[in-house]
Amino acid sequence: xxxxxxxxxxxxAETEFSLQVESDIAPYRGLLLGLxxxxxxxxxxxxxxxxxxPVVIGTLGLLIVGKTLLVVIMGKLFGISIISAIRxxxxxAxxxxxxxxxxxxxVNQGIMSPQLSSLLFLVVGISMxxxxxxxxxxxxxxxxxxxxDVRSLxxxxxxxDDLQDHIIICGFGRVGQxxxxxxxxxxxxxxxxxxxxxxxxVGRSMDLPVYFxxxxxxxVLHKIGAERACAAVVALDAPGAxxxxxxxxxxxxxxxxxxxxxxxxxxxxxxxxxxxxAVVPETLEPSLQLAAAVLAQAKLPTSEIANTINEFRTxxxxxxxxxxxxxxSSLGYGFSRTTSxxxxxxxxxxxxNQIMEGGTLAI
Length: 363
Fold this sequence. Notes:
Blueprint: H1 2-13, H2 18-43, H3 46-51, H4 53-77, H5 82-92, H6 98-108, H7 114-129, H8 131-145, H9 157-160, E1 167-170, H10 174-185, E2 190-194, H11 197-205, E3 210-212, H12 218-223, E4 231-234, H13 239-252, E5 257-262, H14 265-274, E6 278-281, H15 284-297, H16 302-327, E7 336-338, H17 351-357, E8 360-362
Parallel strand pairs: 1-2, 1-4, 2-3, 4-5, 5-6
Antiparallel strand pairs: 7-8
Helix pairs in contact: 4-5, 4-7, 5-8, 6-7, 13-14, 15-16
């Protein structure tokens, strides 16, 4: 049953209902978590700890050191800094709750003796109990050896109190930096968020209001004055992070218009359903620019290149519009409705109808 619940949770986490489900079960999670630790405490036998103290401490040390080294090695293989890898290793070093399920099933199947199971229960329980100290140790290591202190990059409400009708840039990568530069040149107030301390440091060196923080966190958004913002540009790297950020903005700050880039059509439709005001396909315009450069190298006239690119763009957008209308999307993939400039306005009474019927799709 425990494994089935775990698998069910994994399946739900991949659906568009994941954030709402997480919000609904939060109260029960706290109650069940307390019940779980009560059962763990009841399974620990102090007499067994005293009688097998050297064995328990030795096994506990092997578990902590072994898992930490394993995570550090894996972290380095995936390009994570040594400090971050050590911190992750110390956080993941304790045993997990499924160890109790696995050990209990092993005893039932006759694979493990009850005495050994009780001893391992004790080791895993102690390892979980010392998790706060392991986390503190990782933080101590980071504070001594990390070059950038992330805490100094966090947003502070006093620094954003005077902002009104500003733009929120979620993600300070290549797209976010370009948007920030354009807004800065036009003296349009904005605040940028990113979870990379290196990117935040780059933005600070350019004297831009860039802060370290999770753009999908309600608390972080509140600290940068999201309730007073007029729009948000979501340009995070991961599709899941984009969806989570759009969902948080639409749920907690519905007055903020969200403009987000999408990796593909399916992702774009999901973002629109999450509450995005406009969704922009990230591959369309770069592909057209590359195609124009190739056509120019093929010695085609400039006018013919322009016509070819415009025809393809129009056809592509038309196909996307039909797809969105078929799927029931209210805005359209990559675009928001704007007032038509082609239809004449016969009278004031028919103005609203003409806007909707003749609404154009614009990037």
